[in-house]
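Query form — protein AraC family transcriptional regulator

QUESTION: What is the three-dimensional structure of this chain?
INPUT:
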Amino acid sequence: MYKEYSPCSLLAPFIDRYWEYKGETRSGMKFNIPPHGCSDFVFNVGNATDCTSSDLIMRPYHSYFFGPMNTFTELVTQKNFIHIIGVRFQPCGLSRFIKIPLSQFMNQGLDSHEFPALFSQSFIYQLSENQNPIGCIEHELVRQLYKNSMGTEKQISHVVSLIRRQKGIVSIKELATEVCLCLRQFERKFKFYTGYSPKEYSRIVQFWNAIHLLKPNTSFNNLLFVAIQAGYYDASHLYREVKRFSGHTPKAFLTLPMKEKVEVLHFECIEINRKDKVYERIN
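ANSWER: The structure tokens for AraC family transcriptional regulator are given below.
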């Protein structure tokens, strides 16, 4: 079962959300996780939670850092039960705790031992035994917030907010002018703090806006209308972008139940060999 939790008001400028997935799976089950324009720390807190992501094997009682992604991440379970908890930072949120160029970690998943320390191994063991792991994580982040004296990157945070408000349909030159930076300096600074170029980040925001528009009552007959609303050239352009970022075609989103939350975190793909068809379920 998948759940999301909001951060406290003190951490909201830096943390987008906490999320948790706990439940039975089956060996070989595959999850496609689309990019959100953020970075995540992920904790394996069960004793049978082996997952594989690209060349990374996520072992029990370990934490992992997933940097900015510009395509979907494929996660394959190796056990029949998983319990993973994630902390999703705002695009510039991690800089309040660690000053690193996020562009160095594009499309990478790393064991936390290979990444500047934020959560110690002893904390992860403590987390596994805690009855309120989300509260435990939040308490640790608040402690580090007061411990660290690093400032907040206000210029880029402001631009990120503008891109979100305009649903990714923006002029990069106008954004640079907004924060009084030359284009080259703006792009370099944006990439340092978010990991993305302004154009890449805008494309991800635009993709999520398109997903929100692809409601179950939409049909293939009016995909062009959705594409134009979301700022794409045509339906083919929409198709390519959705496929690139999610690993699925727009059809997968059209079959969501009417009351289903559109802001999905992951896709669960279960292949069933029956008359050469592949059945997909989206959570």
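ADDITIONAL NOTE: The two ends are 9 Å apart (CA to CA).
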